[in-house]
Amino acid sequence: MKWIKKLKDRITGLTDAIARFPLTTVYLLAAVIINAYDINTEQSISKLLLTFLVGAFLSAVSQVAYERFFTKISSRFVLMGLVVLLTACYGLIIRPAPKLSMEIGVRTAVALFALFIAFILVPVIKSKVNFNKSFMIAFKSLFNTLFFSGVIFAGISIILTAINLLIFAVNYRAYPHMANLIFVLFAPMYFLSLIPKYPGAKTLENPQQIETVNTISKCPKFLQILISYIIIPLVAVFTLILVIYIIKNISGTFWTDNLLEPMLVSYAITVILVYILASEIENKFTVLFRKIFPKVLVPIVLFQITASILSSADTGITHTRYYVILFGIYAAASGVLLSILPIRKNGVIAALLIVFATISIVPPVDAFTISRNSQTQTLKNVLVKNHMLKDKIIKPNGSISDKDKKTITNAVYYLNRMEYTKKIKWLPKRFNADADFYQTFGFKEYQDQRMIDQSVYLNLEPSFSVSISGYDSFVQAGINSYGKPGNGTNSVIDKRGQKYTLNQDTSNGQIELNLMGANDRKLISFNTQEIFDRFSNYQSTKGQMSVKEATFTKENDQAKITIVVQSLGIDKQSKQNNNASVFVFVQIK
After folding, report:
1. DSSP letter at 96?
2. Is 261 helix (H, G, I), strand (E, B) or coil?
3. Angle between helices 131-166 and 347-361 (to 10 degrees)
4. How far apart are CA 549 and CA 542, in angstroms?
5. Of 416, 126, 105, 130, which is closest to residue 276 (Cα–Cα)?
6. In 286, 354, 379, 487, which residue has its Cα 20 to 30 A from 27's Cα atom?
7. Helix (H), strand (E) at residue 485
């Protein structure tokens, strides 16, 4: 039967892929084991996982490089040894980091993307098989892999759910374990099993192998129709809209509309991707697209580059804008090359993409070194301009312009988010933007008007620890501004046979936590409005607060109470709907 034969062919393809990419298989197995351990113990060891994934990508590229350029088996082992060495170097580089930062994540993602492009390009360098065919094979293989992996995952999920509902309870970890096996091990190996062996140093002129590759790389009829008669017309219409917008706003909002950046980048990616996919399709639509759109792409991305640079003049460069500008330069260069080079030379733009990706992650011209220096200098310039920085000491000044407040806020929060503030000597030691901003700069964080009225919802950071030494008791309490006037829930504390009561008093329109002694004598009081005042100016996108930010302490000669906010919500549309869950630590003297 045909389906049995196809199943055998797929199994054979998988076993052949294991034999063809042995080191990749080992790294993927190691990644699966590490991920499984993480799932079972809920202890993140993602640095090891990333290291093994980098090793898997490197080993896949080294194998296709061996097949293309080498003939001796010793060369294969030398390349494998080099891959192991590079993987170990990557692991040692990220190991000292206390956690996986955004910088490490982005650098690694860009490196993996460059390796994936290299995996497509390397087998066809100086080959009779051009890059367009290799790209089409990888494109089809990727979508086949995603489709089959998704179907398998959905099918097994349904089976596990049925077992859980009808027969016996299934451990909740079964689902992530299944996803781990399917997407970390099966999917990459299935993808590799769909990649044919290209003509190499031994078989460069082998007509049969070239014919096999040409057959596999043929564009399916469905994809031909989709690209020619649906995607290309849609891109043409969108291009017309962009051109009209640019012409209408060339002297106004175009240069300051940051929302256009992702749109233009997406447009450039789409044009380049469609161009490559349409390179093997011959009809009037694709021929016209290949003639016109590379030339149209160049002026559009040049406008985008200029607008991005102008926007960065006052606010500095962040890593995201760095990539926008760098990709704009790449897209403009690609548009020029696609306009003058023959179709079979499209591999040049793939090589150029690898070069640009490498530049963006290798110091000193990488995205993060440039953005750190730019944002630090931008912050320093604004502080100096407003006489707020003298002898490496910041002097608070709340009377500066809103524009400068916005610049300072954006720069500080970017540097804080990227964990660069520790490297700035003139910032206070252990500076935390959320807790120390007002005290350091003399004004609250600047927020756009559209952000001011958005509600704030925060939770205490995970894995927090609070010292309880010296306290007699602690109480978990809920604070709700919509409670009825009067006394809230009371908590009784017993010390040396005496009874003390912690209650909530809402009779004056605000909520006070009062510690009461004998004869209803008030020992100490805390107005919970302080909590909401501290967090009312938080940006709505923040989701966590540190223990330092969440801690409030009140003390007198009779008692001491410390409040740690566990979670809170501030509804800025209706100030009567503020609420918080808190821990109250009580010390009676």
Report:
1. T
2. helix
3. 60
4. 13
5. 130
6. 354
7. none
